[in-house]
Specification:
alpha/beta, about 575 residues, five-stranded parallel β-sheet, 19 strands, five-stranded mixed β-sheet, OB fold (Dihydrolipoamide Acetyltransferase, E2P), 3 domains, 19 helices, Diaminopimelate Epimerase, Chain A, domain 1, inorganic pyrophosphatase (n-terminal core)
Length: about 575
Amino acid sequence: MSFRWVFAQPEQKDHAQELEQKLGVPAKIAELLAIRGIDTYDDAKLFFRPTIDRLHDPFLMKDMDIAAERLALAIRNSEKVLVYGDYDVDGTTATACVYLFLKEFGVNVDFYIPHRFKEGYGINPEGIKYAEETGAGLIVSVDCGITAIEEARITKAKGIDLIICDHHTVGDELPDALAVLDPKRPDCPYPFDGLSGAGVGFKLIQGTLKRLGLPLKNSFKYLDLVAISTASDIVPIVNENRILMKAGLQMLRSHPRVGIKALLTLIKMPLADINTTKIVFSVGPRINAAGRMGDATTAVKLMISETEVEAKSYAYELESVNMRRRDTDSKTMEEALAMIDEEMDLEQTSVMVLYKEDWHLGVIGIVASRLVDLYHRPAIMLSNVEGKIKGSARSIRGFNIYDAIKKCDDLIEQFGGHEFAAGLTIKDGMLTEFQRRMNEIAYLDLSESSFDPELLIDTEIELGDVDMKFWKLLNQFEPFGPSNLRPIFVSKDVQVAGIPTIVGNGHLKMKIKQGNSGVFDAIGFNMHEYLPFVRSGELFDVAYVLEENNWNGRRTLQMRLKDIHQH
């Protein structure tokens, strides 16, 4: 499948020229910085040197003084504290962070993760009842709570203090809690609002340490968990997240905690290989699997494990759950593809709304994302959960799925999310009308070209300009992630050097050069269909990312092809 290439443009081209001169870097490196919104020398310095001492003061966050003082009091008085988290990777890592922090001080601490299907997302009456029955005088919610208006009232009425640590969008009303930490609060002066849920929990840990008169470096031991959260929750890897991510990756590579090490050993992942991508596609899904299939407590238990024996036990349990999740995922994908093939005319369908009553709610979001990648149009997957039609929506660039669902609010019982992803519950009997109206909205908002798959290109470069100096500078752009994705380059009028071949399961392998440039190894996964063309000897254009290939101790640059355009 060929893509329509969309080239990024720096908002201010003169900023790129200024950076080139002030930093003494190649023009294309300066352009990549400008594309990422880095337009001053100080911004560039922080980008290239994201050191831990550049973290923001936690007390810049609204309500941090109240929250930190209350948690410090709980530590001094050895109170019973309940850490209340969410069932995804961000929620479980955040829960583990705050739990381990309090445990270190000998606090009588417990944690509570709601069951995905029996209780649903967020603070609920069952969790509050558990806190009351176990004698907790303080609940610290992480990665949830910002919409818990009624639950905050119930907690307050029961005489239980509530500290909310969240990072989701604030509604029309704030919960009446003792403290509400959320950098997205309109009245919060914190200089960065892109933290993950675990990131907000980490700031509470830092604030509490300050109130206890202890050094902030005591918080750094939780950065491995914060990094897993930051990568998995797809928050922007810029500003403070970049600092947290880099330090967290260093910890994961050098001395991960016993539970994470057990998981990495089980999946045979060398510590030196861990990066943002490996977390997103290998580590995160395994931690997430428990919550997707219902009960996420195993994930927390893995991360708070104290011995290798218990860590190995929880790692094996998670891997077993993940294998079940994969099987369910594959079956659901097959059924969805068959439904599209048999029941939908994609020429007349702008949004794919699919419903099957026995689909597993924990995997339909994953499948919806895959359908979007495959058909390049919004997808909404729905199933029946205890008599209610619930589901997950995923979208493409240019179509705000949250806003579209909001236009159907008379058909919706409950929904939440953002531009590219949302969760929803449809009112009884309204499925057909919802399907019709969503397609009507998308038809008006999208053009025919919207359904053409796009590839976002950073910039065009000449292969002759790519050397080890360029690569070393490019390497300093890591850690990669949202708002700082691995750069995708285009080089035009290239040609094959030697004879292209097919390796593995349909992967195109060849050597490429451009004019008098050096020769680069190139691999295109699942791009075997291009073999006849590239063997023709004609010039062509390539889109790719640069990678380092280590083979028998020899380091070379390799192009990982994303697309080929024929002339």
